[in-house]
Design goal:
mainly alpha; 3 domains; 69% helix; 0% strand
């Protein structure tokens, strides 16, 4: 009923319907995952099929990278495969995109689903296969190594940040566990034990050390990006930052366009703070909400003046605010928090190696989603819907199906 600004001849009802349908599309993957996995045997079979799909992605990415490095171009069979599976049909020089639409989508699918699963199995020392390679190495270990390499070869900057965050979470968990163990041993060996102040000092010392290690790792990642990624050549150019400001510096890093879309979407949220503009509608307001700096950027001008589709927020969190308001954003956030708490509780119960592994993977998935949400804003990609569905399915199996004693045996 609201009078919307026009955007050339793009029909409002079609865009709104697409926004609603993609939400239902994603929710369909979520419900299918929950209700199709009814026991641990079905979980193992599903993991084996997902591992097979992940292995195909890894092989394709490595083939793309090696072929371009060896020949300076892509063989015809790789181009044919890409056109058969990807809507874009494009391959990118010096960047792998697997069978995905573009390299950032490859990083998204790896970080949101595959790598958290393989990391969970690796950390928990579990496998869904009856044997190990050389008696020690599981297939999940190999897939994890290949998945991390493939994600790196995508040269997706937000993807790199997401995987750093995943490993930082694992590092903090391990550090906390080790610290608690050391403190307990010190108290057990001490006649008087440790008083409250000594425990506080010990904890603070631990977390300061953890923070310093995290800063070192993030700095190393920044240097690697600066050295290997041409778009990040001015990452440490502080003279440019002082001369042109944040947006001018960001434009040299090829991220200023993203910032302008984010700000435009946030300005739409400010116009309609409670319930938002409606799914698929926020882009109609972009010509009046985009910051003035955006009109200096060729990509932004092309989207506003020439493209036949409305621009999008390119950020899941700002899109939720812009199109569903604080009400929709709060519901979605609460829904994610509920999955996090469910995964934590399931891991704490720790009765089944397979289910506790899924719960750890679910937590890592949510951490990755927090970062990947700053790059993609669609509800249609199935990866996080499937991953969150695995958490709920594991919870249902824990309370409705018998727990098997080994992840290699059927129920």
């Amino acid at each position: 009923m609201r009078e919307l600004p026009s955007f050339r001849d793009v029909p409002v009802l079609r865009n709104a319907a697409e926004g609603f349908i993609t939400l239902l599309f994603g929710f369909g993957f979520y419900l299918s995952t929950i209700y199709l996995l009814k026991d641990e045997q079905q979980f193992r079979e599903a993991m084996q099929w997902m591992n097979a799909g992940g292995a195909v992605i890894i092989v394709i990415v490595l083939a793309q990278f090696i072929a371009f490095k060896a020949f300076g171009s892509f063989p015809k069979f790789l181009i044919w495969i890409q056109k058969a599976f990807s809507a874009s049909g494009m391959l990118y020089e010096r960047r792998g995109n697997g069978l995905a639409y573009e390299p950032s989508w490859l990083a998204h699918q790896l970080n949101i689903l595959y790598i958290p699963l393989w990391l969970g199995f690796t950390v928990r020392k579990e496998t869904v296969y009856p044997m190990h390679l050389f008696g020690k190495v599981s297939f999940e270990n190999l897939l994890l190594a290949g998945g991390i390499l493939s994600m790196f070869l995508s040269f997706s900057r937000i993807g790199w940040l997401a995987i750093i965050a995943i490993f930082m979470v694992l590092f903090v968990r391990a550090s906390n566990r080790i610290a608690n163990s050391v403190l307990e041993k010190r108290e057990a060996n001490s006649v008087k034990g440790m008083n409250k102040n000594q425990r506080i000092v010990a904890k603070i010392s631990l977390w300061v050390s953890v923070l310093l290690v995290m800063i070192v790792f993030i700095s190393i990642a920044g240097v690697i990006m600066w050295r290997l990624e041409p778009r990040m050549a001015n990452l440490f150019n502080f003279t440019l930052l002082r001369q042109y400001g944040i947006m001018g510096w960001a434009s040299r890093l090829s991220i200023a366009e993203r910032f302008t879309y984010w700000q435009a979407a946030f300005n739409v949220y400010l116009k309609f703070p409670w319930f938002g503009s409606g799914l698929g509608v926020s882009g109609y307001y972009f010509p009046e909400t985009i910051p003035s700096f955006g009109y200096q950027l060729p990509e932004t001008l092309r989207a506003l003046l020439y493209e036949s589709f409305i621009p999008n927020a390119k950020n899941l969190w700002v899109r939720l605010l812009a199109e569903t308001g604080i009400v929709g954003f709060s519901i979605f956030t609460a829904w994610l928090v509920l999955h996090w708490r469910t995964a934590r509780e399931l891991e704490r119960i720790n009765e089944s190696g397979l289910l506790s592994t899924i719960s750890l993977a679910g937590q890592l998935l949510i951490i990755a989603l927090l970062f990947e949400g700053f790059s993609l804003d669609t509800f249609g990609l199935p990866y996080y819907w499937v991953g969150l569905g695995l958490i709920v399915a594991a919870w249902r199996v824990r309370f409705t199906a018998p727990i098997s004693s080994s992840p290699q045996k059927s129920d």
